[in-house]
Design a protein that fits this description.
Blueprint (H helix, E strand, L loop, with lengths): L2 H21 L24 E14 L2 E7 L2 E7 L3 E7 L2 E6 L4 E5 L2 E8 L10 E9 L13 E13 L2 E13 L5 E16 L2 E11 L8 E13 L2 E12 L6 E10 L1
Antiparallel strand pairs: 1-2, 1-3, 1-15, 2-5, 3-4, 4-7, 5-6, 7-8, 8-9, 9-10, 10-11, 11-12, 12-13, 13-14, 14-15
Length: 262
Amino acid sequence: MSGSIRQAVVAGVAFAVASVAQAQPEEPINADRPGIADGSKVVGHGRWQIEVGVQKEFRRVEGVSDHRVMAPLLLRAGIGQNWEFRLETNSYVSLHSRDGLREEGGAPVALGAKYQITDLTDRAAPSLGVIARLVPPSGSGSFRSRRTSGDLRLAADWDFAQNWSLNPNIGVGRVEDEEGRTFFARTFAATVSYNPTASLNLFVDAGLQSPETRGGRAAVIVDAGIAWLLTRDVQLDFSAGKGVRGSTSPRGFVSAGISTRF
């Protein structure tokens, strides 16, 4: 085979491979909402993702019932194939109690990053990632954080059966209580999901923090919900849950949101 023919064959094979790669559709949006556990996968180089919702919580503090409305927000920016930077906050919080108390203020802001440990093309094993957050003193009113806190978590995604997946998180964090004191706590969360169709996701999950206060016991919260893909880049969700142990978890909550990838 002459050199010119060999070069033409190599160029043709390279072009065919590139065409096949370009023809492969991009994976659908992988949002960290709804649910308690965050996923291990990043948004991808040069991609932005906005995950926003409205959440209403029902609590009982020192014998007084109240409800709180907030707008959870997560901004994700992809840097390279394995990194993303994150900004997370409950935005603005409005509290109304049965004894007439009304409070409003800005929620603390968390800055963080996620690193996907496993290769994005490796589908034979569970996907693994590390998520770190730092919460500096921020917010306003009675919702302001006064000391620096944060956490570090290992996250995984495992498609253990057809249409079924498991998403566990395990970590440790420095937590600030309502009196402005900080302490170290262990955290765990796990989400079990079922996809009856390519665009529909049903899930149940649970989260644990131990201790919930300095010297206290563990707090446990559970919830369930649904997520629906409108397009490959847009997801709607709805969820509801409650605290089943501890005094710091809400007695109940409902949440709805939308996630969009750019």
